[in-house]
Design goal:
This protein is α/β, with parallel strands linked by helices and 486 residues long. The protein is built from 16 helices and 19 strands. The protein has an eight-stranded mixed sheet, with helices on both faces.
Length: 486
């Protein structure tokens, strides 16, 4: 079989061969080397892109804590997507997560650029890190090729240019990103998750209207411009060719795999959106569900634990509002027998009197600050973490006394992380408790509010009058207990 760089001699006419022979003879008499002029060279054979990917492209595959380089053998669904991209000018693909579509499109882009001069591929991602990752993948694919029809001319972090003047350039999604560039091909990766999706589409669509190609791929995220374009494409009301790829398109995914992943998800609705079997599931409206689908999950974590040792390090978590809300105290240690797990050793709730929390109380009926001071004299409190939103006054008092190590617990991204971890600890029975009735009530009152972007969640009230402060304190305390080297 001929090399991809071997000229097809059948396409050189007798007249051209005669002209070349005369030129060779003249140069030979003059003692000069002969090079066939470009106009006389036979055209190079451009490989079929699907065959080229299967035979030449290698990609990265996570294997636990490491990454392996493997051949990119296409699945049936990937072959179908590639075929659609090859033949259509406008493509929109709705997909489940982790189906290799980004690898597929960047592989196609590398093929387009290295075998066709002066091509320009514009890749748009939800942020600059994601955009740079696409360029990194393109460079990796090219550098690992055994046969290269051209060489890299320039390769900054955000782009790659070859010697034939073709290039791939990546952008973070902004309102007018890429509007000043003309693209042979435009890729909008995870389009539904872009902040300025509508503005970006309006800006980049004209750049390919003179003959370029646009490919939109994304998992779903509610009703937005991606949903609008997808719905219109399925009804043939716009120029896009549409394709849906379900979670089961990846060969090793089974019903058992699906059930296992669902058990770790923030909600069933969110799981169906991320791993849909149908387009309708993909556009499922993600809303709040109960924090625990069944309280028996909490009850199964109840365990008789040995008494807390005087030197055993404990994290105390505080959550409260100053007025018209309860004050929650939860003490968490590592599990005495399973060090990678946690145990809730103490939990207490103070309710407001005349609309306010009495922080000090009395010796007979201590408030939360007096209770904490007394506890610190008897046990090893390694840290006191707290929600700073409403507890700055109480924290200032404790800081001025200089007894405890206090840490503000951020209520943004870190809360999403800790609340998801708290759910996982309960579901997988990596958390133990003594059956405290107030804590159980607060857990039962809680809903989970998924965050589609991070696939994490926030513990929220099911109803405005229900108390969940102890659940939030349990989440924060468990997170800090596992984070610290206790």
């Amino acid at each position: 079989m001929a090399s991809i760089l071997t000229p097809d001699l059948s396409k050189i006419t007798p007249a051209k061969l005669k002209e070349a022979a005369i030129a060779m003879a003249i140069l030979a008499k003059r003692g000069k080397p002969f090079e066939i002029p470009e106009t006389l060279q036979a055209p190079k054979i451009i490989p079929d892109v699907a065959k080229w990917i299967g035979e030449s492209v290698t990609i990265e595959e996570p294997q636990g804590d490491t990454v392996s380089i493997i051949p990119f053998h296409l699945w049936a669904a990937q072959e179908e997507a590639l075929s659609l991209v090859k033949k259509s000018k406008q493509v929109i693909i709705l997909k489940a997560r982790q189906l290799g579509l980004s690898w597929l499109l960047i592989s196609y882009s590398v093929w387009l650029c290295i075998y066709h001069p002066s091509k320009s591929v514009l890749v748009f991602s939800k942020d600059q890190d994601s955009a740079n990752e696409m360029i990194r993948r393109a460079k990796g694919i090219f550098n690992r090729l055994k046969e290269k029809p051209t060489e890299i001319k320039n390769d900054p972090v955000t782009s790659i240019t070859w010697g034939n003047e073709s290039r791939i350039k990546a952008f973070a999604a902004t309102e007018d990103a890429g509007s000043s560039f003309t693209g042979s091909m435009v890729i909008l990766d995870e389009f539904a998750k872009m902040r300025y999706a509508s503005e970006l589409y309006t800006a980049v669509k004209p750049t390919i209207d003179d003959g370029g190609k646009i490919c939109i791929i994304s998992t779903a995220k509610g009703e937005n411009i991606f949903h609008t374009l997808w719905a219109a494409a399925t009804k043939k009301e716009n120029g896009f060719s549409s394709l849906f790829i379900p979670w089961s398109a990846r060969p090793e995914r089974t019903a058992e795999w699906y059930a296992r992943v669902e058990s770790d998800s923030v909600s069933s609705a969110h799981h169906r959106q991320e791993y849909p079997a149908t387009p309708e599931e993909a556009f499922t409206v993600v809303g709040e569900e109960r924090f625990l689908p069944d309280m028996s999950l909490w009850d199964m974590c109840r365990e008789e634990l040995p008494p807390l040792g005087k030197r055993e390090p404990m994290v105390v978590a505080l959550d409260a509002a100053v007025t018209n809300d309860s004050f929650a105290f939860v003490g968490v240690t590592r599990h005495p027998l399973r060090h990678d797990d946690v145990a809730i050793r103490m939990a207490r709730e103070w309710r407001p009197v005349n609309g306010r929390i009495d922080f000090e109380g009395s010796e007979d009926n201590p408030g939360p600050l007096r209770f904490l001071r007394n506890l610190g004299k008897e046990y090893n409190i390694a840290q006191v973490c707290f929600d700073p939103t409403e507890l700055r006054y109480a924290a200032q008092i404790l800081k001025s006394e200089g007894v405890f190590w206090l840490k503000e617990f951020p209520q943004g991204g870190q809360r999403l992380e800790s609340d998801k971890q708290f759910l996982d600890l309960i579901i997988h029975r990596r958390l133990s408790h003594d059956g405290n009735a107030d804590l159980r009530r607060h857990i039962s009152n809680a809903n989970r509010k998924p965050d589609p972007e991070t696939r994490k969640l926030r513990i929220v009230k099911r109803e405005a009058n229900l108390k969940i402060d102890m659940a939030v304190a349990g989440s924060m305390g468990s997170y800090e207990c596992l984070r610290l080297a206790l």
